[in-house]
Amino acid sequence: MARLHIFDMDGTLMPGTSAGMEIARQIGMTAEFRELDRALGSGEIDSPHFARQAYRMWSVLTERHVATAFAGAPWLTGIREVWADITARGDHCAVVSLSPDFFVTRLRAWGVHEARASVFPTFPFAPDAVLDLSGILMPESKVAIADELCARYGVRRDDCVAYGDSLSDTALFGVVPLSVAVNGDDHVSGLATHAYTGTDLREAYALVAEA
Q1: Which pLDDT tens digit goes with each residue over 75-112?
Q2: How many structural domains comprise the chain?
Q3: How many Cβ atoms sit within 10 Å of the Cβ of residue 43?
Q4: Does any domain span residue 89?
Q5: Residue 134 included in any domain
Q6: Domain housing 86
Q7: Cα separation of 64 and 163, whole Å?
């Protein structure tokens, strides 16, 4: 039976940071996004609140800002190799992230089969535009997307492996049989079946590759 590997991005594939923080470095708003990330990670605000605030602060955003942020982010090593191995085995892989689609979907070029994320307008953003919150993902959205992808690929929840690091991953960790806390915090440490601390995704993947 084929398997579906589902990866979080912020804090997981990019340890210690997020798409919002990496973009903030390019537009000189690191303090503002550090506070937003902290509030989201602690559960003080939800994803729609975060998205509304971020959308306002991203009014100056350009393609160059995002491309530079993506290229300079501190990615785990071995991401492409892991996704290539998953593909070679006839399995499937997806990134599901609450972060903006204009950042997350760039990972498709690295070999991931699916990249799902919160939907934002194309930039530059119109100063008077209103963000459509119906496209903003919540933590529980990861479970719904996992079910959708299971149906697409003909697998079951029991055939899924989840990789994550924090509160936004707890719903998914609660419904799949195998999960890896990658540099995980207290929200996932008691839920994950495996734990990895380090900077190489190949090592985290090895914990479940033959399971």
Answers
A1: 999 999 999 999 999 999 999 999 999 999 999 999 99
A2: 1
A3: 11
A4: yes
A5: yes
A6: 4-15+76-206
A7: 29
